[in-house]
Design goal:
Shape: elongated
Helix content: 40-55%
Strand order of the largest sheet: 2-3-1-4
Largest sheet: 4 strands, antiparallel
Structural class: alpha+beta
Distance between the termini: 20 Å
Number of strands: 4
Radius of gyration: 15 Å
Number of helices: 3
Length: about 110
């Protein structure tokens, strides 16, 4: 999953919370991004950080909601893209690190 953050403190806070809650196995924070976009009728340009989040597809809806709760933007960028291929040991690690959140989801009825 991909998201942006306005500054390092926000990105780190979101990343730490999501890892602690086991909604993601890892968040890679990439500084130095520049976003050019239209907002409220005006073209804007802002420095941001890109967050690359590794999780399982069964957790995406919870992860989308949680990022929105944690994020300071009214409309944060939160998008997902499937991983078609990956090193098996890595994808197993992602699955293991997020298993508890997925099991919790099952206990809550989805």
């Amino acid at each position: 999953m991909l998201a942006t953050a306005p500054d390092a403190a926000t990105a780190e806070r979101i990343a730490r919370t999501l890892v602690e809650e086991r909604l993601v196995a890892c968040v890679t924070i990439v500084p130095g991004a520049t976003s050019v976009y239209r907002w409220q009728g005006e073209v804007r340009q802002e420095g941001e950080l890109q967050m690359l989040m590794k999780t399982r597809s069964s957790l995406l809806s919870r992860l989308f909601r949680r990022v929105q709760e944690l994020h300071p933007y009214d409309v944060p960028e939160v998008v997902s893209a499937p991983i078609e291929h990956g090193l098996l040991r890595y994808t197993r690690w992602v699955a293991e690190e997020t298993r508890a959140a997925d099991a919790e989801r099952g206990n809550q009825g989805g």
